[in-house]
Write a structure and sequence with these properties.
The complex is a heterotrimer of chains A (73), B (150) and C (439). Chain A is an all-alpha fold. Helices cover 37% and strands 0% of the residues of chain A. Chain B is α/β, with parallel strands linked by helices. Chain B is globular and about 65 Å long. Chain B has one domain: Glutaredoxin. Classes of the chains: A mainly alpha (73), B alpha/beta (150), C mainly beta (439).
Chain lengths: 73, 150, 439
């Protein structure tokens, strides 16, 4: 019980002081802005591959792209 | 022993949290009192940021003698990346480097680019997130409005 | 405050200087300068990607496919996307019949009876029955408009079409995207509707009818609706992850009008052939997960997909791409690998026995069989930014890609006695060679 209380208060303190948050600040996206790091960054290759697999296999699609990248505007 | 380790960890987190909200050097901004300051937060990897540079060049030329100062605050992690673009874009206004994002955090930058308009008494009056060609005219109107004020 | 020289000033000074050195006419140089500038300015909001792919299967189909994609940024922050593909296929396509020691004769789809010699083809002993005159040309295109509804919300409207002489398809889609947590999270949802019109060469055959009776009708249609929900999450400066869930349902004419199923006797000799038949509807569900991790010298992308459908097929796909920038960051190599496995559709049969009743749904199409597939690829890219003079743009790139694909059928019944020693389930091997250009 005591351990749980300590763990809980630590988490609350940590979160409120900005120690744990998923993601980055808007100006820290230099790597994410690179084309090879963007979901959908290799559209043409994916389209050609998808066409090849669609004509040879029973599965297709399932992919879609949104988000990521530089987050600009 | 475990409790001491845990509380040290807590102290570190709190310290890190408060250190992030450090004030930028007040001398730099206060020396610009009396001028209308257009602070633009940009980075080399941000395409709309670079697209706004020619427009900012025009603004600086047009309103410099009426008291407009444009400062482009660069947030690149690697200074070399910023300098590569500065050589190509040849801006006609001041550049300031803020790789740790201290100024960005102080002015609450939520997106790239962000522009903050400070009036002649140093107060932040307008903040814009993002740059779109369609909005440029409205930004210019706001600058003119602040230039008229004393 | 010092006024820095603008690009325009510097350029004209350089041109004047070089002209003076070469003794050339400054007027002509200034004109070229304007043309380059005009072109560059006109293309500022455009991103162009083009590729030419050549696909070749061992002893079967080959295809040439040029593709072009253009993206245009709009003044309000929106985007227009256009793409266009042309496909020319030729070669030999399996007709679904089983390999046999006996010589088999088949009629092309355009034949009306076995009397028309020029529409017949013969398959020699021990070979996979393929129609050697397969040829098809396809034109496809699409456009989509991303329109910002607010700084954090976007709507996406899209349409695409595909046209070949026996098949037309049109699809419309609508989607919505919303950013959260300072754009670290993005959720998206989209719906699409597809309508296909089939006009098989020779007419759509009566399903399960005797192949030798040439019972053929006219045209057919099918219709599909799909929904997709996705979330993208930035995990750290180096890592982004994305997951999608999608469901789609197709109904109508889902058969391959050119595929037949061999009916064989007790010994294993071909007794006859019937046209295949597939169920009138197909519902598919899939889950997709992608991760990208990057660092200054490169990145790795790993993704996986799991799919199940109402035909009893389920599949697993896993892919990995490694982007490796060569020192100098002007060139890169990108090796990749893909592993795929699917099991057979409930109604897949490599052949039918003449003594058994013909099931209501049956197909011998290997695309519905159980198999494992492997792809190995290598891509090389080279930035052209500094090699195109004043036309050089940041994303200008030349690239070349080679992929090897092989498909191995598995879990199929051993053939009848007459076929012992024959390879009834040949391996498919193919390669893809592609050159691309980005501007």
């Amino acid at each position: 019980m005591k351990l749980t209380l300590i763990a809980l208060s630590l988490t609350v303190a940590a979160v409120s002081s900005g120690c744990t948050s998923l993601g980055v600040e808007p100006w820290q996206r230099e790597l994410l802005a690179r084309k090879d790091m963007q979901p959908g960054g290799s559209r043409l290759d994916d389209a050609i591959d998808d066409h090849m697999y669609f004509s040879k296999e029973a599965s297709s699609g399932g992919r879609s792209f949104g988000g990521g990248g530089c987050g600009c505007n | 022993m475990r409790f001491i380790r845990l509380s040290v960890l807590l102290l570190v987190c709190v310290a890190a949290g408060s250190a992030a909200a450090r004030e930028p050097d007040p001398v730099e901004l206060s020396s610009l009192r009396g001028k209308v300051v257009y602070l633009d937060f940009w980075a080399s990897w941000c395409v709309p940021c670079r697209q706004s540079f020619p427009w900012m060049n025009e603004l600086q030329k047009r309103y410099a003698d009426r008291g407009l100062t444009i400062i482009a605050v660069n947030l690149d992690h690697e200074r070399a990346d910023a300098e590569k673009f500065l050589r190509k874009l040849s801006p006609g206004f001041q550049i300031r480097f803020d790789p740790d994002g201290d100024w960005a955090r102080h002015f609450g930058v939520q997106g790239m680019p962000t522009s903050v308009l400070l009036d002649r008494s140093g107060r932040s009056r307008f903040t814009h997130i993002g740059f779109r060609a369609a909005d440029a005219a409205q930004y210019e109107q706001q600058i003119q409005q602040l230039l008229v004020e004393h | 405050m010092q006024l820095e020289p603008t690009i325009g000033n510097l350029r004209s000074k350089l041109i004047a200087a070089s002209c003076a050195l070469l003794g050339g006419a400054p007027v002509a140089r200034a004109e070229t300068h304007d043309v380059v500038d005009t072109i560059n300015r006109a293309l500022t909001d455009w991103q162009l990607d083009a590729a030419l792919a050549y696909y070749h299967e061992n002893g079967r189909i080959q295809a040439v496919e040029p593709v072009i994609n253009a993206e245009h940024d709009l003044a309000d922050g929106g985007q227009l996307d256009f793409d266009f593909t042309f496909d020319a296929l030729s070669g030999s396509s399996p007709n679904g019949a089983l390999t046999s020691r006996q010589v088999q004769t088949f009629a092309s789809p355009s034949a009306k009876s076995f009397a028309q010699a020029r529409h017949m083809y013969t398959v020699s002993s021990g070979n996979l029955p393929v129609d050697p005159n397969y040829s098809d040309a396809r034109v496809a295109g699409g456009a989509s408009w991303t329109l910002p509804l607010s700084r954090l919300t976007r709507a996406r409207l899209g349409g695409k079409f595909s046209y070949e002489d026996d098949f037309y398809s049109a699809t419309v889609s609508v989607g919505l995207e919303r950013d959260l947590n300072d754009k670290n999270t993005t959720v998206s949802f989209s719906v699409n509707s597809e309508n296909d019109f089939l006009q098989p060469i020779g007419g759509a055959p009566t399903p399960l009818s005797d192949y030798t009776q040439f019972e053929k009708g006219g045209h057919e249609t099918k219709h599909g609706v799909g929904v997709l929900a996705g979330v993208t999450q930035v995990m750290s400066r180096n890592w982004i992850t994305l997951a999608n869930v999608s469901v789609d349902r197709f109904s109508g004419y889902l058969n391959d009008p050119y595929k037949i199923v061999s009916v064989i006797d007790a010994v294993g000799s071909p007794f006859g052939y019937v046209y295949e038949n597939r169920p009138d509807s197909r519902t598919r569900r899939s889950v997709y997960w992608e991760n990208r991790v990057g660092w200054s010298q490169g990145s790795v992308t790993a993704d996986a997909r799991y799919m199940t459908d109402s035909w009893g097929i389920h599949s697993e796909t896993a892919q990995v791409h490694l982007r490796w920038w060569l020192p100098g960051r002007d060139q890169y190599l990108e090796p990749s690998a893909r592993w795929y496995r699917q099991n057979a559709a409930d109604f897949f049969r490599p052949w039918l026995a003449d003594t058994a009743a013909v099931p209501s749904d049956v197909s011998s199409d290997f695309r519905l069989a159980a198999f494992d597939a492997l792809t190995y690829g290598l891509k090389y890219g080279c930035k052209l930014t500094d090699h195109l003079g004043r036309f050089g743009r940041e994303l200008s790139e030349f690239n070349i890609r080679l992929e090897y694909y092989e498909q191995s059928l598995r879990g199929n019944p051993a053939g009848p006695p007459a076929s012992s020693g024959l390879d009834l389930y040949p391996k498919l091997q193919a390669f893809l060679l592609q050159i691309g250009f980005s501007y």
